[in-house]
Amino acid sequence: MAPHGGNRLAVARRLGCRPDQLLEASASLVPFGPPASVRRSLRRTLAGSAIRDYPDRDQQELRQAIAQRHGLEAAMVLPGNGAAELFTWAGRDAARAGVSLLPLPGFADYQRALACWQGAWRPLALPLRWSGPFPQPFPAPTGADLAAAAIWITNPHNPTGQLWSRESLEPLLERFALVIVDEAFLPLVPGGEAESLLPWVGRCPGLVVIRSLTKLAAIPGLRLGYALADPTRLARWAAWRDPWPVNGLATAAGVALMADRAWDQRVQRWLAREGPWLAAELAQLPGLVPMASAANFLLVRGERAGQPCCLNGLRLALEQRHRILVRDCRSFAGLGESWLRLAVLDRRGNRRLLGALAQELGG
Ligand SMILES: Cc1ncc(COP(=O)(O)O)c(C=O)c1O
User: Fold this and answer.
1) Cα(4) to centroid of ligand 1, in Å?
2) Has this prediction a pTM greater than 0.90?
3) 300 close to 342: Cβ distance less than 8 angstroms
4) Residue 16 belongs to a domain with what CATH number?
5) pLDDT tens for residues 54-80?
């Protein structure tokens, strides 16, 4: 199976270059992060005793900061070692509830989480042709799919970048015993918060919203995400996990980021400017069809004379000749070799990516 994106260190080793010589367009992180507020807080934390002390087991300060940001109670918040850790516990609940419905192509980590608990799942095939504008309705499950107990939603969807409307997701809360909504990329999307299911947390015990700070703050190495859900569910998860899943540095970074509202606005302004610009430039290149996306990544389809064409050679040429990493889509069920996912970068990075693509495609 093709790997997850964001393997800069491993690729640099393979290519015999320094990691900072590689342009990272496979993992879809904010290209100008981490924010100054996070860097400052990390420096302060290192100078203090946070790594000499065990982290607070209750994560009170961080839970409070997250709760305040979202207008919820601290008991409805559970920070985790990245969103990935929290999927593991969501997977345990989903496996116990019954069969899960997984929209595909989709993020493969939900399957890993379910497999930990022998959780059964069935695919909900998403149409592979779509256009904007966003938000748009989530394709409602019908027939036998409605017999599933749980559904895993990604909003905006990875890898397609589609932003689902809150209005189209709300009926799922009545139809499924458990609705897990991964909003890892939502805070980056201009206007995205309006489509969040967060207002239903506290009113709907079968809802779990999971967020990640990895993409928003460009801190994949710190590992920090959080779940927002019914306090009883979260207390159960807290009793299952190991005692200190979130370390002192990640905790400090999270507290700083939650207070830094200007960061989200800066990120959204960048994406509103750079996303449409990159898509328009990509559309000029021969053999690539950029799909509409509300997120900070774009799925592109290889197409020549109306027929799908393989983009594997292009991906390898970008890596080996241009030192640019883009997301191999072979690990996304239903996609395969004629698709690539490109992260939106800053203007300089986008120009480097476009230049390399033009050179390889003859655009
Ligand atoms: C949709 C989605 N959710 C969650 C994650 C993982 O986030 P974290 O780094 O917080 O574990 C990813 C990472 O690629 C992702 O694509």
Assistant:
1) 10
2) yes
3) yes
4) 3.90.1150.10
5) 999 999 999 999 999 999 999 999 999
